[in-house]
Design brief:
Blueprint (H helix, E strand, L loop, with lengths): L1 H10 L4 H8 L3 H10 L6 H20 L3 H7 L12 H5 L4 H14 L4
Helix pairs in contact: 1-4, 2-3, 4-5, 4-7
Length: 111
């Protein structure tokens, strides 16, 4: 799943610093994992990866054109008081990522 999330981060055009924040790890560790492969993933890390893939899946369902979904991550959104979904997720907490995922799941009628 880590490789899939790395690919997703590329589509979202994230910096290493942003990616490391989303995964709650030091930038050096993120860069090492990116170059050499994943080490041991904690429960929190696995939950982060799963929720990030859930965000991606919901966007693929909502937007028929993939590029629109990738761009949506950085666009301001009234549901987040004008902040982008990325801004919300960069709060650094697992619950920040989950908030975006829950919003998207509700938008696509998954609940």
């Amino acid at each position: 799943m880590f490789r899939a999330v790395l690919n997703l981060f590329g589509k979202w055009e994230l910096t290493d610093e942003q990616a490391a924040t989303l995964l709650d790890m030091p930038v050096r560790s993120y860069r090492r994992w990116k170059a050499e492969g994943v080490g041991r993933v904690s429960r929190d890390g696995a939950a982060r990866l799963s929720n990030l893939m859930g965000v991606h899946k919901a966007l693929r369902i909502i937007f028929s054109e993939a590029q629109r979904g990738y761009a949506w991550i950085k666009a301001g959104n009234a549901a987040f008081a004008g902040a982008s979904a990325l801004d919300v997720m960069l709060g650094g907490e697992l619950t920040d990522i989950m908030r975006v995922r829950r919003y998207l799941d509700a938008e696509r009628g998954a609940w």
